[in-house]
Write a structure and sequence with these properties.
This protein is an alpha+beta fold and 324 residues long. The protein is 23% helix and 31% strand. The chain has helices at residues 19-30, 55-63, 96-99, 111-123, 172-178, 197-201, 208-212, 246-249, 267-273, 279-286; strands spanning 11-15, 34-38, 50-53, 74-75, 78-83, 88-93, 107-110, 133-135, 140-144, 149-152, 157-159, 162-165, 184-196, 216-222, 225-232, 237-245, 263-264, 293-299, 307-308, 311-313. Helix 1 runs parallel beside helix 4 (111-123). Belongs to the paxM FAD-dependent monooxygenase family. Pfam families: FAD_binding_3. Residues 11-323 form the FAD-binding domain.
Length: 324
């Protein structure tokens, strides 16, 4: 006999506890559903760069009672673009007239701060509804797409009405839904790091106007490479992203065709790739410290579908994309 799911909450299993997985979990919990999240890592060492919360994203977070301003979110107030020599090409102020067209604010947020907030809110016992059940260090070995069943390496199974695969770029769930369509490297990589504004401003080569301006997104660019910088952490920390051809960032002593998100970067290779850029860029890179990471850029063919049976994929599992 069929069960009328309109009369009870859905039981939802989500594979992956990144930004997409936890956001989906919190949204479903807010609507009264029972959610279980399965994550392969232990969250022992969480790192990451900053990210944009454009007004449409901010509006969704605020609907879930997650406010970027409470996790160090910095308002985007200005964009400044330079060429490789440090000549100012364009400035755009986001004043009251621009902001009046937005449904809410545009924030720049440290990914870890947002992730921690989503995790805390989803699993909190003080919110309405049943807390999200979060299981760490779980390796998925099998999925029944039509019955929304997940089997783990240790033999445990999770059953529900709906299964969401938020398991990232190398998604196990996607493979079950669409087969062998895989993401591919596009030949571009990013070196990224976080550095305090105080550290940058202590270096005389720093472009002080760009760093001191509150909420300024800054870019120095050449045709095939660029450095992007913008603040987070209550406007005290700069998120730096240096994009260049992967071949120039490849460490010959650590050759890999699959550079993971938290692989350590090589400052000397980065400085060599940007040797013709202005002193302000050199200063930013030389102050990268121990936080420097390298991250390969990927793309993927458009998938024929995102759903099968009682299962679907979301986030990078469904549509990885490169930073603009």
């Amino acid at each position: 006999m069929a069960v009328d799911i309109e009369q009870r909450p859905l039981k939802v299993t989500i594979i992956g506890a990144g930004i997409a997985g936890l956001t989906a979990a919190l949204a479903l919990r807010k609507q009264g559903h029972e959610v279980t999240v399965i994550e392969r890592s232990r969250f022992a060492v969480e790192t990451g760069a900053a990210m944009h919360m454009a007004p449409n994203a901010t509006a969704l977070l605020e609907w879930m009672d997650v406010r970027p301003s409470e996790v160090g979110g910095t308002l985007l107030r200005q964009m400044r673009r330079f060429d490789a020599n440090g000549n100012l090409l364009h400035t755009k102020e986001f004043g009251p007239e621009d902001r009046s067209h937005w449904q809410t604010e545009w924030y720049l947020v440290h990914r870890v701060d947002l992730h921690n907030k989503l995790k805390s809110e989803a699993t909190s016992t003080t919110r309405d509804g049943v807390p999200v059940q979060l299981h760490l260090a779980c390796k998925v070995t099998d999925i029944d797409l039509h019955n929304a069943t997940v089997t783990l390496e240790d033999g445990r199974t999770f059953n529900g009405d709906l299964l969401l695969g938020a398991d990232g770029l190398h998604s196990f769930t996607r493979k079950q839904i669409v087969g062998e369509i895989q993401p591919y490297a596009v030949g571009k990589s990013c070196m990224r790091w976080l550095v305090s504004k105080e550290t940058l401003l202590a270096d005389p080569r720093t472009d002080r106007a760009s760093i001191e301006t509150p909420g300024a997104f800054v870019e120095w660019s050449a045709p095939d490479r660029r450095l992007v910088a913008y603040p987070c952490g209550d406007d005290k920390i700069m998120n730096m992203c240096a994009f260049a051809p992967s071949s120039e960032f490849q460490d010959p002593e650590n050759v890999s065709i699959d550079v993971e998100y938290n692989t350590s970067g090589n400052m000397n290779l980065m400085l060599r790739a940007f040797k013709n850029f202005c002193p302000a860029v050199q200063a930013a890179m030389e102050n990268s410290g121990d936080s420097l990471k390298i991250w390969d850029m990927y793309d993927m063919k458009t998938l024929p579908k995102w759903c099968e049976g009682s299962s679907a994929i979301i986030g990078d599992a469904a549509h990885p994309f490169q930073p603009l």
